[in-house]
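Q&A log
Question type: sequence-to-structure
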Amino acid sequence: MADDHPRDDAPISASKRSDAHAIVLDEFTDVKGKSIVGRSVTINKPVGELFAYFRNFANLPAFMENVARIDVLDDKRSHWVVKGPAKLTYEWDALVTDEVQDRYIAWASQPGADVDNSGRVDFRDAGARGTVVTATILYDPPGGVVGKLIAKMFQREPAIQARRDLRRFKQLMETGEIATAAMNPKQREEELA
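Response status: OK
Response body:
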């Protein structure tokens, strides 16, 4: 992040500053998308551990609810398959556009993407509290404003998913599992008995 902009734990995309959008765009080397989403979470784990887990993109479907799969093509490129509303799927190739070990990872979708997007995930040491992880995503919703509204109705809109996915990442990294309301097989058997 730019050092000349004072920051708190909230993502700059949530700022009430008039220049917030310009600050976000300054941080991206390849901007794809006009809608912006930003979310942060503090995770009680060291920066290096969180960065390493997140940087292995094959790990991301473990906590990203709408990501069906990520095929890692090489160190910089990956192919994403994401679930959308009404049982639709969207696909794109992503390229890591900028990265600093244990600080941030930035990416942008490549030409031909079903959803143009770019983003950056920042990892900031929070001392005894662990690490502040901030996800900032720019995207163009399929179907424009109507598509964004439909995605919200189906709980598949990126602003909703970013919040949920970061919460799930926190749970996974701090406890080793993600809490769900679903019954495990033993509970289901007991319920049916």
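Response note: Residues 158-175 form the longest helix (18 residues).
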